[in-house]
Amino acid sequence: MNQTTHENTTQGRAGRMIECMRRSGLRVTPQREAIVRLLADDSSHPSAESVHARAALELPWMSKATVYNTLNSLIQAGVIQELDLGHERRFDGRTDEPHAHLVCRVCGRIEDVDLPEGFDIAGLADAGTGFRAEHVQVKLTGTCRACAAGPEASPSPCRRAGGHIQPR
């Protein structure tokens, strides 16, 4: 993606996120707008602490409490997604396109992977069991390419299967 395309995508995503805030009844304050614009442009899925550090560069008087409250409000309004990594909460502004999160258990990196057009796991669950999903988040935990190629990639006596350690 070239720089101009990236900027247009980011500006478009931020604009859609701000519109979603308005439709949800959230006021567009300078603090909320700064956080939304930051998340629209950040594919690293930042932590609240990282959001605060970066937002404070633009608005030095913004408190951590404001950041946490804003992130929680944006989650409730469906503007952003929260990724619960067990030990840490991370945030994703990319709610406008279906995608999964690939989480590296070695380095902690989070990568997005687009899901196929029409991917509807909630529909499959409803059709098969009658379960009505209220929120869908696809997260795969494993080892990224860079870590798999590194020294930590040596074979282990155990392998992970479905989140449980099982012998080979």
TrEMBL record:
Family, per the entry?
Answer: Belongs to the Fur family.
Keyword hit for Cytoplasm: no
| Entry protein name | Ferric uptake regulator, Fur family
Q: Which SUPFAM superfamilies does the UniProt entry name for this protein?
A: Winged helix' DNA-binding domain (SSF46785)
Q: Which UniProt keywords apply?
A: DNA-binding, Metal-binding, Repressor, Transcription, Transcription regulation, Zinc
Q: GO terms for biological process?
A: negative regulation of DNA-templated transcription; regulation of secondary metabolite biosynthetic process
**Pfam families, alphabetically?**
FUR
Originating organism: Alkalidesulfovibrio alkalitolerans DSM 16529
Which InterPro entries does the record associate with it?
FUR (IPR002481), Fur_C (IPR043135), WH-like_DNA-bd_sf (IPR036388), WH_DNA-bd_sf (IPR036390)
